[in-house]
Amino acid sequence: KFKVENHDPDRNLVKVGTSSRGTPAFINRRVVEADKKVAIGGIVAHPLMGYGGGAKIIVPGVAGTRTIDLNHAMGDHQKAFVGVADGNPVREDAEEIARMVGLDFIVNVIMDPKSRIIGAVAGDVVKAHRAGVEEYNKIYGVKVSEEADIVVLGSSPRDATVFHGTFALPTATPFVKEGGTIVWVAACLAGAGDREERLAFRELMSMDPDEMILSIKDGARRGEESLASIFDWHTCKVLHRNKVVLVSDNISRSEAEEFGFNYEESVQEALDEALRKEGGSARVTVLPVGGLTVPVYD
Question: How many Å apart are CA 168 and CA 295, to the nearest integer?
């Protein structure tokens, strides 16, 4: 039998040092004091750290709020983006802290869209993770070429909620021209939530992205909670760059509008409207499993 504990980012922490990027490493005491540390996780597309897995189980996984906030505040770096591991300061900061903690070993899996394991890597927190990333890209990597006028983006399989579904939105931007249309198909199985949450989200997304990131970084420096998270900023950038049209069986038009999204009843209707806007010769790209897709460059 194994004892299972939920990590609390504000309690039972110990500082193990400060990273070379200036992030104070507050980590769960139980983890720090363990004789052996084995991290189990999955490699999947991630809008901030490039991919899940690896050192992400340490930061943010078992890190303190202060550590997480300062680490994530580097998320405006050009390489802090989906599909980028090497040179990504958010990931490399987490990897440095994982070394400080003494993470001995990782086991990371790759899953198909139905959550069945189709690959696995094990070993060093960086070397094994990068080997897994290489395999992941063979499955889910899509080459970036000419920007399309319209991208049809499926958030599957990571779209149980609206907010999880937004994680796929940054993936579309390398494939669609600025001002183009993203037809965002998201199941949102949990529904639309309450009206206050929807209106608060719309107000947040109305912020200028530059003002939002300054607020996030300032809050992290001061140790104060920001109104927005780095993930909100990534979504906000997409909504200011492109027209985003939501298609969902579990969100109504009025609810979508309360979120601040455009809305169509079906993919076909959304595509027809986008083609009217862009013209009959518009280029269309389809990313059916956008929740797993990563852009790949030459």
Answer: 11
Kindly report whether the global pTM for this prediction surpasses the value 0.85.
Answer: yes
Farthest-apart Cα atoms in the chain, separation: 64
The topology under which CATH files domain 13-141 is Rossmann fold (3.40.50)
Span 254-259, mean pLDDT?
94
pLDDT at 58 over 90: yes
Q: Which CATH superfamily does the domain covering 144-296 fall into?
A: LarA, C-terminal domain (3.90.226.30)
Question: Token match 């929807």: residue?
Answer: 198
Closest CA to 54 of 24, 81, 93, 15: 93
**Eight-state DSSP code of residue 145:** -
**H helix or E strand, kind and range, residue 230:** helix 230-241
As a whole number of angstroms, the distance between CA 59 and CA 26 comes to: 10
Cα distance between residue 201 and residue 168, in whole Å: 17
Q: DSSP E strands: which ranges in 64-188?
A: 105-111, 117-123, 141-143, 148-154, 176-185
Domain range annotation of the chain: 13-141, 144-296
| In the predicted structure, residue 227 carries a pLDDT above the cut 80 | no
How many Å from the N-terminal Cα to the C-terminal Cα in the chain? 48
Average pLDDT over residues 102-122: 97
